[in-house]
Design goal:
By secondary structure, this protein is an alpha/beta fold. The chain contains ten helices and 18 strands. It binds flavin-adenine dinucleotide (FAD).
């Protein structure tokens, strides 16, 4: 698999990942165009961020926008994620924000995340299949008894901000889920799950109907300053533009833009999907379609029951792209699934297994805004972008149109550079070992 820390190209004209979504959805994609000679704004990357930026640029600012995608539209994370719609991004919770930046900032951050959720609900309501949304809420599960006290502590902070959150006590957890690795939970009732591929196609349709031109299977190779702004060299010719928004996120190839080099760690997240569970198995696990689950581990596992009764189970994958498809990583997820649900031990195979790159920033939260004259970027969501990208895309467009962004840390500074960047992968490997010890998974 393409490795952003090693390869200079994300590939070209590649079909969508061989995921469960790809095999079980019939997305309607909009028409794509050939590369025009000029644009007011070029957006690079057609995931949720790039498409949402294009919608705002075309609708709100009447810009001539061209979105350039190296592969199939939304080929990166946006067509292959787990579809959890949460009120968060990055790795920091509201309690962390409160500690770092104070109560007012934490409150404004929640408002920004709620805006993302609203925007997604709006998009959902516009779609014929309602994006196959499942509306049960998100449960953050204490994966072992020692994690309960910290989770309860988080609840004490969260309840000041968010009335939609409640605490599930240890003696109540069996009413939610029958897992050996669930000892209490936080429940966020307004979060939900959807089909990410349908969301990608719906966002692409909206961008096209707003007037953005979508150019697929065309790789951006270089950005050079010109009298008008930038000359963008692609694998299918050049385009002159006033401004460029980079929305390639974790898939940003080495050398595309010096201002982004060494400011993100691309990390593989992997998913398995089982065959449909039997009605008895579903009853034994207590899983309910619509509930999305993630645990308190440092190296988190996440899962949800899909509308057709299959279990989607995800977590960290390989460290290097060349190992991404090694079945050992799917097997590891299967083991983790058995640990949570011993009643599913008869399931010894997965039917789908795929991975994708998420962008981890040094200080655990994303940045959106200007990185140079007429050059803007959004990246570093740390694996939580399904809902936030709808806001991030809009803010990216606002930044490109010189509008003032909310006074939040996301929008006020560039991503930090990783110190000793060439050792990022070694650091990741060490972190995985530390995480396993901290999570009580070392054996
Ligand atoms: C397995 C997995 C599960 C996940 N689950 C969840 C979840 O449940 N909930 C959640 O909130 N988040 C989840 N995420 C993260 C979420 O999917 C991402 O944060 C989000 O989709 C990022 O969107 P994006 O538009 O910024 O980037 P992407 O969707 O990754 O798009 C970047 C695009 O840029 C293109 N590109 C790169 N280089 C070039 C170039 N030189 N020229 C042209 N195009 C280029 C790529 O081909 C790619 O299509 C998950 C991620 C993975 C991998």
């Amino acid at each position: 698999m393409y490795d952003p820390l090693i390869d200079a190209s994300p590939g070209e004209a590649q079909p969508l990942a061989d995921s469960y979504w790809h095999h079980h959805s019939q997305p309607q994609w909009p028409k794509t165009s050939n590369l025009p000679d000029s644009a007011d704004v070029v957006v690079i990357g057609s995931g949720y961020t790039g498409l949402n930026a294009a919608i705002t640029l075309a609708e709100k600012y009447q810009q001539r926008v061209v979105v350039i995608e190296a592969n199939h539209l939304s080929w990166g994370c946006s067509s292959r994620n787990a579809g959890f719609v949460m009120k968060s991004t990055g790795r920091l919770g509201l309690a962390d924000w409160q500690t770092r930046y104070g109560t007012d900032t934490a409150r404004q951050i929640l408002t920004e995340h709620e805006y993302g959720l609203e925007k997604l609900q709006q998009r959902r309501s516009e779609c014929p299949e309602q994006l196959q949304a499942q509306l049960g809420g998100y449960y953050k599960l204490a994966h072992r008894p020692q994690a309960v006290a910290a989770l309860r502590q988080q609840y004490q902070t969260l309840r000041q901000f968010d009335p939609a959150v409640r605490f599930i006590e240890p003696e109540q957890i069996n009413g939610v889920i029958h897992s050996q690795q669930a000892h209490a939970a936080l429940h966020f009732s307004d979060c939900f799950a959807l089909n990410p591929l349908l969301l990608a196609a719906a966002t692409a349709r909206k961008a096209a109907s707003s007037g953005a031109q979508l150019v697929d299977n065309t790789r951006v190779i270089a950005l050079d300053r010109s009298a008008e702004g930038y000359r963008v060299t692609t694998s299918r010719g050049t385009i002159q533009t006033g401004k460029v928004c980079i929305a390639t996120n974790a898939y940003t190839p080495k050398g595309l833009c010096a201002r982004l080099d060494n400011r993100s760690l691309p990390v593989l997240s992997s998913v398995i999907v089982t065959a449909p569970l039997t009605a008895e198995e579903i009853a034994a696990t207590g899983l309910v379609p619509g509930n999305v689950m993630m645990d308190t581990r440092e190296l988190k596992y996440y899962y949800r029951l899909l509308p057709d009764g299959r279990l989607l189970f995800g977590g960290r994958g390989a460290i290097q792209g060349k190992n991404a498809d090694d079945p050992v990583f799917a097997q590891r997820l299967l083991h983790a699934m058995w640990q949570s649900f011993p009643m599913l031990r008869r399931i010894t195979e997965w039917q789908y297994f795929w991975s994708g790159w998420v962008s981890v920033s040094l200080d655990d939260y994303p940045r959106i805004g200007a990185i140079d004259d007429n050059l803007y970027a959004a990246m570093g969501y740390c694996g939580a972008g399904v809902s936030f990208t709808s806001v991030a895309g809009e803010r990216l467009a606002d930044a490109a149109m010189a509008q003032r962004l909310p006074a939040l840390p996301y929008y006020q500074s560039p991503l930090k550079r990783f110190p000793m960047a060439r050792f990022r992968r070694l650091g990741q490997w060490l972190f995985y070992h530390y995480g396993r010890i901290k999570d009580g998974d070392w054996r």
